[in-house]
Specification:
The protein is built from 15 helices and three strands. With 332 residues, it is mostly helical.
Length: 332
């Protein structure tokens, strides 16, 4: 009887498309729809790079350093962002590591060394304390009702410890238990319990779902009672695009010249928490990250910033010490 690994290798022994479609099926059954979206996009992109036809993509030909480098150059020529290039390359690496398990015969641990697979930090998307305060205490009379609700969602994501938009959209009415929200992160399945701060209450009351038949706390996914799984996730993707478009309009009114997206609230929470001295482990736990390493990716650029600040304080201390000595000598 074949092992699971042997069965997986049989599925993809000839063709990358067959194997990735098989993995996509596994991810779909596990309800990991963001991963399904990423795998489908990667496969579509690689097929376009390979000519766009229905010809086979032998695994042995795809997973060579030369072919992967050609694919990276093809992506770069299309002016894709480094984040997108990295996402496609890391997805292919995950496919390769699943097909040729690390440590087994035939696995090449250096296969992806010459292509871009870095996870860039998004701290540049974070708002400063002052900028976020402008949104938090803004006069919303200039905003339409829809814009006020979009701003409320953005503020709630921050107040709910940097909650991602997908988790906010999928929140159910039954997740609210007294003065807490108990839910599972859509990405990791990890259960989180969040105390509802008093600042969040008027925002919740202003935008909560008025549809008694809906299971959702907010009307972001309303009208999708008959949809589930992949179809519901596709509707969420459309809702996310709509949210970001409207959020940009809100920012243009309240924070002219500042780029804001659904990611900004989460990164702002992590960044400001770091600056007030909150331990990285607590930040990681609050965000529901799978490991502290993920959190460190958010915060890495600020390490040098803090070191430089400490250096300035040290130099200032030495300078003040010299001034005190000079003052004492003059008194003598």
């Amino acid at each position: 009887m074949k092992t699971k690994v042997e069965e997986e290798k049989d599925v993809g022994a000839v063709d990358l498309s067959h194997y990735m479609q098989w993995v996509i099926g596994v991810l779909s059954r596990e309800h990991k729809y963001p991963a399904v979206h990423t795998y489908r996009s990667t496969l579509r992109s690689f097929r376009a790079f390979s000519g766009g036809g229905a010809e086979a993509l032998p695994m042995s030909e795809v997973f060579t350093q030369g072919r992967l480098k050609e694919y990276e150059e093809w992506l770069m020529q299309r002016m894709l962002s480094l984040d997108t290039v990295s996402t496609y390359m890391r997805t292919l690496r995950a496919v390769y590591n699943r097909w040729a398990v690390p440590g087994t015969a035939g696995h090449n641990p250096k296969l992806f060394d010459d292509v871009y697979t870095k996870v860039s930090s998004h701290t540049k998307r974070a708002l400063t304390e002052r900028q976020f305060g402008k949104l938090m205490y803004a006069d919303t009379q200039r905003l339409s009702e829809e814009q006020r609700c979009v701003l409320a969602y953005f503020l709630l994501m921050f107040l709910f410890r940097g909650m991602p938009f997908i988790d906010l959209a999928y929140l159910r009415k039954k997740d609210v238990q007294g003065n807490t929200i108990v839910y599972r992160r859509h990405k990791t399945g990890r259960q989180l319990t969040i105390h509802i701060p008093k600042e969040a209450l008027p925002l919740i009351n202003g935008c909560k779902n008025r549809n008694c038949d809906s299971i959702y706390l907010f009307p972001i996914l309303d009208g999708q009672a008959k949809n589930s799984g992949w179809n519901l996730y596709r509707f969420y993707q459309a809702a996310l695009r709509s949210f970001n478009r409207m959020l940009r309009r809100v920012a243009k009114i309240l924070l002219p010249g500042v780029k804001v997206s659904s990611y900004t609230a989460r990164h702002t929470w992590a960044t400001l928490a770091f600056h007030i001295g909150m331990p990285v482990g607590i930040i990681s736990q609050s965000l529901g990250h799978s490991s502290i390493k993920v959190t460190e990716t958010y915060l890495k650029p600020f390490e040098n910033e803090l070191v430089d600040k400490a250096n300035r304080e040290l130099i200032s201390s030495v300078r003040k010490s010299k001034k005190r000595d000079d003052l004492m000598r003059n008194r003598l």
